Amino acid sequence: MAMAVRVYLLLFVFLSSAIVSFSLYEDQVGLMDWHQRYIGKVKHAVFHTQKTGRKRVIVSTEENVVASLDLRRGEIFWRHVLGTKDAIDGVDIALGKYVITLSSQGSMLRAWNLPDGQMVWETSLHSAQQSKSLLSVPINLKVDKDYPILVFGGGYLHAVSAVDGEVLWKKDFTAEGFEVQRVLQPPESSIIYVLGFLHSSEAVVYQIDSKTGEVVAQKSMVFPGGFSGEISSVSSDKVVVLDSTRSILVTIGFLDGDISFQKTRISELVEDSGNAEILSPLLSNMLAVKVNKRTIFVRVGGNGKLEVVDSLSDETAMSDSLPVADDQVAFASVHHEGSKIHLMVKLVDDLDNVLLRESIQMDQHRGRVHKVFINNYIKTDRSNGFRALIVMEDHSLLLLQQGAIVWSREEGLASVTDVTTAELPVEKDGVSVAKVEHTLVDWLKGHMLKLKGSLLLASPEDVVAIQEMRMKSSGRNKLTRDHNGFRKLFIALTRAGKLFALHTGDGRIVWSMLLTSPSNSEACARPSGISLYQWQVPHHHAMDENPSVLVVGRCGSDSSAPAVLSFVDVYTGKEISSSDIAHSVVQVMPLPFTDSTEQRLHLIADTDGHVHLYPKTSEALSIFQREFQNVYWYTVEGDDGIIRGHAMKSSCAGETADEYCFTTRELWTVVFPSESEKIISTLTRKPNEVVHTQAKVSTDQDVLYKYVSRNLLFVATVSPKGAGEIGSVTPEESALVVYLIDTITGRILHRLSHQGCQGPVHAVFSENWVVYHYFNLRAHKYEVTVVEIYDQSRAENKNVWKLILGKHNLTAPISSYSRPEMLTKSQSYFFSQSVKTIAVTSTAKGITSKQLLIGTMGDQILALDKRFVDPRRTLNPSQAEKEEGIIPLTDSLPIIPQSYITHSLKVEGLRGIVTAPSKLESTTHVFAYGVDLFYTRLAPSKTYDSLTDDFSYALLLITIVALVAAIYITWVLSEKKELSEKWR
Amino acid sequence: MAPILRSTSLIALLVFQISLFFFVSTLPISSGSEDSYTITGRVRIPASTAIGHAAKFSNIKVVLNGGQNITFLRPDGYFTFHKVPAGTHLIEVYALGFFFSPVRVDVSARHHGKVQATLTETRRSLTELVLEPLRADQYYEMREPFNVMAILKSPMGLMVGFMVVVVFLMPKLMENIDPEEMKRTQEELRNQGVPSLSSLLPASR
Prior knowledge:
The complex is a heterodimer. By secondary structure, chain A is mainly beta. The radius of gyration of chain A is 34 Å and the shape is globular. Chain B is built from five helices and eleven strands; from the N terminus they run αβββββββββββαααα. In chain B, the strands form three sheets. Chain B has a six-stranded antiparallel sheet, with no helix packed on it. Chain B has a three-stranded mixed sheet with strand order 4-1-10, with no helix packed on it. A two-stranded antiparallel sheet of chain B has the order 6-11. Chains A and B meet through β9 and α8 of A and β3, β4, β5 and α3 of B. Chain B: It is found in: Membrane.
């Protein structure tokens, strides 16, 4: 027995002495992982379709991405993700070779090389105040003349050279409070007309010399009614704007610097007038106004007279106008009709002359058309052809050409807000989804190839064949459950309120569904997605039911806005039911109870302090009533620095309340002193995490019991001064304090303060430990600290006799109300990178050792073994500790390049990492989302419970054959020898 | 671990050698109004390295204070942060395939935005804000080239090797054995009815 233990120990030492890091061979890329690149919802698009060179479209998006897309296939040529505070205000092409972007409220101007996206120059512009920003790039550029780029933002008008980004001149408008609305650069003229409003009641026109920036002339005129809303410039000397009551259209003419007003009541134009809204497109001599859900087109006559020429019902999206041949200007409009969309391109001068009319079948889960951008090309018969780039309500981007969708991009996936996992359906008997195995010869051939590959004897063609075989192999893209749980669905909810199911095998979209409000009211036509919960995970007695998820959506950005609940079948992607709920949603709490159909009970807290039970069935109610006394929860009021604990009190009173509504009482409050501490981060354990063992045996045969409680809350606070950015505070002024709070009693179990440190804090909480990342101002480095919590009250249970005689407290019920004796251990290390998010791997039984997944500022994900953040690390571990696998203490955590799970890829704009266990204990799924999506499968301690894909069955087979042959030969030889012996 | 260390040291040597090729003096410049300054620096990456990552400037991000500002490199490798207040800041460079040390940058208000820079990893202070990678990162494990020894050392190789030994060396050994003793053993075995093949095995004793 002792021998066996020793052998086991030796084996363990042998296994653990090698530091297992995630590592990948280059030819294994794409076998277990996939990566998808996105850009986000397009805000601006500029086409670049000159005869020479590749046809491309430059887009800027709401995810602060500027990108160049291939117009033929929709692929990304290049892309740059700007900082989170660097929102793009405008994009254009200058000099035919530079992409100009204006960002940060008009204070940052950058030029990118059109073919490869290299930044050419960058200019920071003066800005003194918040104002709208405007980018004006001269259109007809001649090579010999350098017209400046005009930028208005932050109260200044800048003229910037397009060649090198030098500021030629700037004009300060901050003193007057002048808001520039339009900048006109008439061709062949050195005078620039700048039209703007002063305190939105006075129109001012400046004439500025484009060479020097001097004001040549200035005219102003007061409009008593005041202006509001969008401005529409209809010609080179006229703009139309709404007055402050939104019922009068004001035509402002500024011919040669003279200002004239002309008022037209909207009620004179259309009968049912209401609040009007000018649609922003730039149309020449034409104006689009939205009144009462109708879009009317108003022509502006030469003398400023307005007349209605056309009106469209339904919501219509329109493009800017586009010059086509013969001095004509066209524009595109898209409207819905049933499941089709109609694209029309008309001439502005002659609305009856429809240049193009196309109807395209559109998936209704894309919603309405939000934006249209058009571009023309000359067909072979010298007529004009048009292509239209449209942005749909679900943020997807489509290119329409010749009545068909040429390509589409699911850009909604760039703004994932929540992710959950779901199982695939079980494979039914007799229904084989895909036949995987072929004949034995093929199988052998394949394995011979693999063998060649692993012996590095393969020729390049063989390598290609192997790669292809691997990609297709093992039916990894089947739509059924597999033995190891490698095939799964990741359900992602996007900000646009669309739900996507992604297959782990290749990342394809299995189904998608746009969230809609069931009542379809005006106020809540399109709810935005907030969070996702596992609603029904059938496994025992409800196997016939399909699993479903609960989607919580909200009708506005405010947290008190009414919410929408939707229940979606995971297998089919169909909505089972949905409901508008009368109350708001502040917090959704899955309870650890399920009803007879395995529906999980959820509590939803609203802004009034009531909680509502879902599903609204009597069965759920009876289950909940049974556990009424044991339901607790907490709220964090970050701004006030208060954490409150609540318990159930009674049913709601009042006429609106139903029996599923409950009132609550406050149990405890933790108030942080507002002058010295501000909450910056709170975190709990994942509720579905599995802990394999509570005991931890240390080297000297001592047992430590992990304090594993689901009710622990990690809170990090900093001094109010240190809540800002790095560099805004000195080490003496800032301190970081972390707490571990029991959420049932409000008891502070542990407090740790770090002087001279500040946030942001990124933390991960698993089992009995917390790891958090923060900035140390004294050392001016990032630091990572680990805190492990052990239960001392059980430490006495070591004596075997006590265990046998039953004098232990292991079976005593664990209650938060019993006073725990805690032992905490902590240790800190330096870390050399900024961090965006941290996650931890999770496996089915929790036996496999854990890895931290650190999403760095460089948008890579680093897998760091938990053994590197172990408070028991010492400088010189003893022999016994070394055998246990304790790594000698170093002052900083290592960054091993091979342990980047994203290898040579980046998950641009990384926001979150989700891990989910597979059925195989050694393996875990990792899904990272940001602007890009990335998925891989990890085995933190290598795949000890299965053969790897690399395992060479052919070599095994050859060896067996060789052995059998050898046995036969020796047998024959020995027979012969025996015979000859006998003859002798 | 061993192959990692070997490759990094090799690459580091290469980096060092190549980065000697030219050296343009760039003083940390900063200018600006009373309380906000400009930090200008330069990233220099060795022209080519042993690994396949093309050192493209268009993929490099320079990050100020953990994401407060993000900027990109110009074709000549220069970067600029505008409107930086006086104080102590942190600049990080993120380039695929390279590891850069974060840089602590002190912008002095007294000396009109004079910049002092220190690498936080090596605690080396920089006279000018020229940032070079500490090491080149190799994200993939290298395949070991075909090796006869590795095959032989594998369990299957050992099995085959043992078989070879049995097949070819055993008859040689048998020859040296005294034929009388051999006969006796064989008779013994025959009486027990053991297959003749296994009769070879005790002979090897």
